[in-house]
Write a structure and sequence with these properties.
By secondary structure, the chain is an alpha+beta fold. It has two domains: 36 residues; 106 residues, no CATH class. It contains three helices and ten strands; from the N terminus they run ααβββαβββββββ. The longest helix has 21 residues. The radius of gyration is 30 Å and the shape is elongated.
């Protein structure tokens, strides 16, 4: 004697509730991948955008570059002053910003440059100076050189 049983829709629903769609280890791998991608974006994507606004020849080996930097819509502009090898072009300078090229001054005053005379840079800042290093160093070829800088500053 054979008894045939059929499952009803309710019984099938109860059986499916206990079935896992994803295993826990796959969920953990997906979570770790999302976290790793987030860390990569934070560490290797800079929100700072820079645009070249001025280039001045300091001597036969160096040019002074001034960039306007913005970190987004909610921040004000800052102006960054760099020395860079005169034998290279503007495109090489802009590429160097992603490397280790650091500004010798960061300020809120876009008109801080007064003049370059006798291989000396004269600056006058009306506003905030966030960073300043003097003398300013730059690399030309394999050698490192410096340029003297004279700075006057006032808050207004």
């Amino acid at each position: 004697m054979t008894i045939l049983t059929t499952s009803t829709g309710l019984e099938r629903a109860l059986i499916m509730q206990n079935a896992r769609v994803f295993k826990k280890r796959y969920s953990l791998l997906i979570l770790l991948a999302v976290i790793a991608f987030g860390v990569y974006r934070v560490l290797f994507t800079s929100p700072l955008e820079q645009a070249l606004i001025k280039k001045v020849r300091v001597n036969k080996l160096a040019n002074l570059y001034i960039t306007q930097a913005s970190a987004g819509a909610t921040t004000g502009f800052s102006y960054r002053f760099y020395l860079y090898d005169a034998s290279k072009d503007d495109k090489a300078f802009m590429t160097s910003l992603n490397d280790d090229n650091q500004p010798f001054m960061i300020t809120t005053d876009k008109d801080a440059l007064k003049k370059v005379s006798n291989e000396v840079i004269f600056l006058s800042v009306k506003g905030t100076v966030y960073a300043f290093h003097s003398p300013a160093f730059y690399r030309a070829g394999e050698a490192i050189y410096s340029v003297p800088i004279y700075l006057t500053s006032s808050p207004f």
